[in-house]
Amino acid sequence: MKLIPIAFCTLFLLAGCGQSSSPTAAANDGVQKLLAGLPESDSDAAKIFVRRCNICHLRPQPTAFDAATWPKVIGLMKRNMANLGVPLPPAQDEAIILDYLRRNARPPEARQQGGQG
Ligand code: HEC
Hints:
Number of strands: 0
Mean pLDDT: 83
Largest sheet: none
Structural class: mainly alpha
Shape: globular
Bound molecules: heme C
Number of helices: 5
Low-confidence stretches: 12-21
């Protein structure tokens, strides 16, 4: 239960706490910066990813996990969203995000290659 207040604090921090009279312009500017460090930064997929995955925390890098692990992380995040009252992405957006993350994911660990390790 400790996570919930922490996540809410992050949420308010990211929202910039009432400093701007033009939240939409500020949000667009922020999205541009968040996109800049990502693969396929001009794509709709990257934009949907930032919109959905930069709410409670900074959007992760797709290279944070390998392609096999991302579906599990998305599953955990959907639970976080349900717990914290953040609307879940529509199925179509979820599929786009997952494809995007898996396409750009970290290569799988080379663990099995060594034989008897
Ligand atoms: C409702 C709030 C919320 C949203 C929206 C959200 N997350 Fe998270 N995320 C969390 C919380 C809370 C944690 C830390 C605890 C945990 O791992 O569940 C976290 C942690 C993470 C981590 C670190 C996990 C680890 O084991 O290091 C990754 C990666 C991540 N989120 C990816 C995403 C992606 C991708 C999306 C978009 C689909 C997303 N998050 C959307 C709440 C959220």
